[in-house]
Amino acid sequence: VELTPTGAFRRSLKRLSASDVEDTLSALKRFQANLDDRSLNFEKVRNAQGYFTIRSNLSIRILLKRTAPERYDIVIVGNHDYVYERFFKK
Amino acid sequence: MSLAAASRKFAESLTPPPSMDWETLLLGDDLKDMERSVDRFETQMTAWRTDTSMKLRKGLDVLRKAASEVDPASTRDIFAETLAGAIAGLEQAIRSLSEPMHEREDIIARLLVISSLAPGVARLVRKQLRRVERTRVLSYNALVDWYYTILAFLSEFEPDEERGPTFSDPAELERFIRSDLA
């Protein structure tokens, strides 16, 4: 997979903590190695055609834009993740 | 309408989600009241998601068209100012839905009282709360999707000269990013 970091991505990375930067670099490495890595929780952005997100950690996702079948722009880092239903403890 | 005005109008059109009326829900005379309240909540949330999704798509199309008539540098400045408000609104709504209703201490205390009223009530209450939780998660995830939609939209106006090189080797990409951060 070919990845192109954008200016917005590089700027957004500078606002993250050191551990969030490491999580983001790790996620990008795994994505480049295997597009289907399930731990990345690859999701389509439903209202923006051609855009996808992958998980850096439980509060950060990386926004990607597909520009060719195996080519993506790394658009920006966003600080929200999708959630799942939580069930009752009692 | 100017791009700034259209952009502000768009930001204002993204209304916060309807809130659950817990007072009414938990003070209802019987479980039927509770079920009706949850029905109402589900319906309102579904309508809000559909309506906001439509406003978002249409609004961004209008802004895209208006932006094509303005020079790119001005467009970026206008959007940076006006759409920051839209993003802040979405983030506030995300925070408001971040906690499952059934994990709030005040709700738990009242649910325990209701559930002890008669045998079998706890199971029926749990069923309604599961519906509330499903609705919360659907709405939360819709907000997150809209948040990334606006970030994606803003990226359309990023200057090309700020794009970095393209990498096929993960190690080279990492080196580039680390040197940029240093």
Description:
The complex is a heterodimer of chains A (90) and B (182). Helix content of chain A is 27%, strand content 33%. With 90 residues, chain A is of the alpha+beta class. Chain B has helices spanning 3-13, 22-27, 31-67, 72-96, 105-115, 121-155, 170-181. Helices cover 75% and strands 0% of the residues of chain B. Chain B contains 7 helices and no strands.
Give a quick summary of the entry.
The complex is a heterodimer of chains A (90) and B (182). Chain A has two helices and five strands, in the order E-H-H-E-E-E-E. By secondary structure, chain A is an alpha+beta fold.
Structural features:
A: alpha+beta, 2 helices, 5 strands, globular, B: mainly alpha
Biggest sheet of chain A: strands, sense, closure?
5 strands, mixed
Whole-angstrom Rg of chain B: 23 Å
- What fraction of residues of chain B sit in β-strands? under 5%
- How many DSSP-defined strands of chain A? 5
| Mean pLDDT figure of chain A | 93
Order of helices and strands of chain B: HHHHHHH
Helix content of chain A: 25-40%
Q: Which consecutive residue ranges of chain A, at least 5 long each, have pLDDT under 50?
A: none
* Radius of gyration of chain A from CA coordinates: 14 Å
Q: Structural class of chain A, please?
A: alpha+beta
What gap, in angstroms, lies between the N and C termini of chain A?
46 Å
Q: Summarize the main sheet of chain B.
A: none
Name the structural class of chain B. Answer: mainly alpha
